[in-house]
Structure formats: C-alpha cells, structure tokens
Design goal:
By secondary structure, the chain is mainly α. It has six helices and no strands. It is 85% helix and 0% strand. Helix 2 crosses helix 3 and helix 5 runs antiparallel to helix 6.
Length: 195
C-alpha cells in the first residue's frame, strides 16, 4: 500500500519542481540580472554547441562517443562573458532609446537590432571564437570571407521573426532568456559553419 500512496506525492513533487525552478530563476533575475542572464547564456550556448556536435556526428554516421569538450567550453565562455551581458544592456538601451510610446517603436527597434546589432554581434562572435580557438589573423580573415555573409543572411532569416516576437511581446526581463532559447539552435548552426 505504501508505494501506491507515495506515487501521487512523488508526482506532485515533480509538478512543483518547474515552479520552484522558475521562482528561483525569477528571484535571481531580480537580485542579479546581469549575472543570471550571463549564466543562462553560457549554459544554453554550451548546449547549442553540444547539439551541433551531436547533429554533425549523426550526419556523418560516426559511431564514436567522443565529443569535443573544448567546443562547449568556448561557447559557454562566449555566452557568459559576451552574449548575456551584452544582450542585457542592448535590450535596456533599446527600451530607453526607443520607448514603447514612440510611433513605430517595434519597427525602429527591429531595424536597429537587425541592421546594426546583428552584423556587429556576428563579427564579434567570429572574432572571439577565433581567439578562443587559438587561431591567427589569417584564419579570422578567411572565416570572415567565407562565413560572414552566409551567416548574416541566415541570421536575418532566422532572427528577424524571433526578434520581432521578442521585442513586441516578451517582457524586458525575459528577452535575453527568450533569445538564448532560440540561440540554442542558432549556435548549432554557427558551430556547423566552423567545421
């Protein structure tokens, strides 16, 4: 009788776990907004790289279980030190510079994001990844020449609707998290360019 009686309690505890995690995240977000966004960016960026590696192994039909541990570490560092903090301040800047009451605020924010922030952020991504991989300036120039425009065009295709939703409907404190969840797949794409 005891196992059957404990099952509803265990199921109830599982139901409260996401609520407790969300409550903890909201508390951390309120107390340490930049650090919380940096940590979530780092974790989700690393997961994006792991996803890319697993997809690549599956596409090549490799049976080895070996994954490049340095890749997720580079992406975690990039997410923690660059994506999280920079995105936090960029969304605050947009909110301040183009307040919601300004006519066509969403369009202006989207244009700012897509035409200025996206190319600069992508350039920064290629530069920092080049440095973290220990490559020289020639490798960076070659990567920029071969990968920047295809990545930017894909960025505009994928991120424009995502950012429209993010800027229009997602509350300011959750915009970095929303973008990080979308970036899980974006980083998988970017990592596939590096191979």
């Amino acid at each position: 009788m005891a196992p059957a009686a404990s099952r509803p309690r265990a199921e109830a505890a599982l139901g409260t776990l996401p609520r407790r995690a969300l409550a903890q995240y909201l508390l951390l977000l309120r107390l340490y907004p930049v650090l919380t966004k940096a940590a979530s960016s780092g974790i989700l960026s690393a997961l994006g790289n792991l996803l890319a590696q697993m997809i690549e192994k599956k596409q090549k039909k490799e049976n080895s279980q070996n994954l490049d541990v340095c890749g997720p570490l580079r992406y975690a560092a990039y997410g923690f030190f660059v994506t999280g903090p920079l995105s936090h301040y960029f969304y605050l800047f947009m909110e301040h510079w183009i307040p919601p009451e300004v006519p066509l605020a969403t369009v202006k924010r989207l244009l700012l994001d897509r035409l200025l922030f996206a190319p600069a952020f992508l350039l920064l991504f290629f530069l920092i990844m080049n440095l973290l991989e220990g490559k020289d300036a020639n490798a960076f120039a070659a990567k920029m020449k071969s990968g920047f425009w295809p990545a930017l065009r894909m960025n505009w295709r994928m991120w424009t609707p995502v950012q429209f939703i993010n800027i229009s409907y997602v509350p300011l404190q959750f915009r970095v998290l929303f973008a990080n969840l979308a970036a899980l797949f974006w980083y998988a794409y970017l990592a596939s360019l590096g191979k």
